[in-house]
Amino acid sequence: MSSSDSDTRARMNLSQEVDDYIKDTIDHSLGLPISIESLQKKLLASEESHLRLRDQYLLLLSRLKEKDQVLDRVRSEASLNAQALKKFVEENQKLAEECGNLLGQCKKWERECLLYHQDRDALMEFGNEADERAREAESRVRELEEEVARMSEELQARKRHIGIEQVDNCSPLEEDLLDSVLGSLISKDENIVGRLFLEANIQDQSCQALLSKWDRLKPSTQKVLSLVSVAKKFEKERECIIQNLAKAEQEAELVSKQNRKLDKENRKLLRQQQSPLGSSEKSHKTASAKSNKRKCPKMMSSPIEKMLEFSGSPEINRKPLSPVWDNSLDSRMTKK
């Protein structure tokens, strides 16, 4: 019932307003004066509409200010995002350049590793050859030492039993036999080796005396001295080969240490290159931190630079192996 009453009241009010409006219109068309009450009602209605419009204007103005503030905030955020994006792009370009440099240095290290492997193989082959030559030289020296010892014993035995004078007057058959035995070991061209041996050891009185009467010595004595000189030569060559072998082993050990260090650095670089990039904020922070680090080039010490300094240090410069020819008697023969 209440709803029906309200509807009827609204209709009555509406009809009253319509009636008043029709009445005012008729009076205005007829030129009759409008009542003060109707004018006051219109004035009140216009004031109410003015107030409503003012309230709506103020509300819209406040909303416009809020929208302007929101727009300003959005613009500032957009400018900050644009600056951050620009920095991020620059850092990405710098990181790409650094990655390119790292790849170039990795290729350079790969070439260095290949060269070190080749050097190591060459050193191993040289070591094997040096071992073989050392064994051959040792066996040859032992044979010559045994032969010289045997011949010295024979000579001493002959001198003890026969005497120096009888040895000087020994039969031609014995001389021929001794010359044939020594000739099988020493050729005629190698007799000069004995003279060079005496010249090299001229400080010794015995060597000086033998050198002074070299042309008067018997061929067998000259050949014995040549055998002694060859034995000394092989002994010195054996020592030189042993020294070269020790140097080769040291260089091989040094190369293996360097290879292990290079392998560690390569694995570290590969892990750094294969690690995925994080979020944009994290990459921005890390990029800004890297840019701050790059402002101090003196404090930057990458593993690549360390390895380059390590490879260029004078401690790694290889010492040349001492050649066997320079220590031999044949080299002195050619020099003289």
Distance from N terminus to C terminus (CA atoms, Å) equals: 147 Å
Mean pLDDT: 73
Number of domains: 2
Largest sheet: none
Protein name: Protein CROWDED NUCLEI 4
Keywords: Coiled coil
Organism: Raphanus sativus (Radish)
Structural notes for this entry:
The C terminus is likely disordered. Helix 2 packs across helix 8, helix 4 runs parallel beside helix 7 and helix 5 packs across helix 7. The chain starts with a helix and ends with a helix. It has 336 residues and is an all-alpha fold. Helices cover 85% and strands 0% of the residues. The chain is rod-shaped and about 185 Å long. The protein has 2 domains: 64 residues; 210 residues, no CATH class. The protein is built from 11 helices and no strands.
Tags for this model:
single chain, 336 residues, mainly alpha, 0% strand, rod-shaped
Structure summarized in a few sentences:
Helices cover 85% and strands 0% of the residues.
Secondary structure topology:
Blueprint: H1 2-30, H2 36-162, H3 164-168, H4 172-185, H5 191-200, H6 205-212, H7 219-274, H8 280-294, H9 303-311, H10 324-327, H11 329-335
Helix pairs in contact: 2-7, 2-8, 4-7, 5-7
Organism: Raphanus sativus
Coiled coil: 92-161
Keywords: Coiled coil
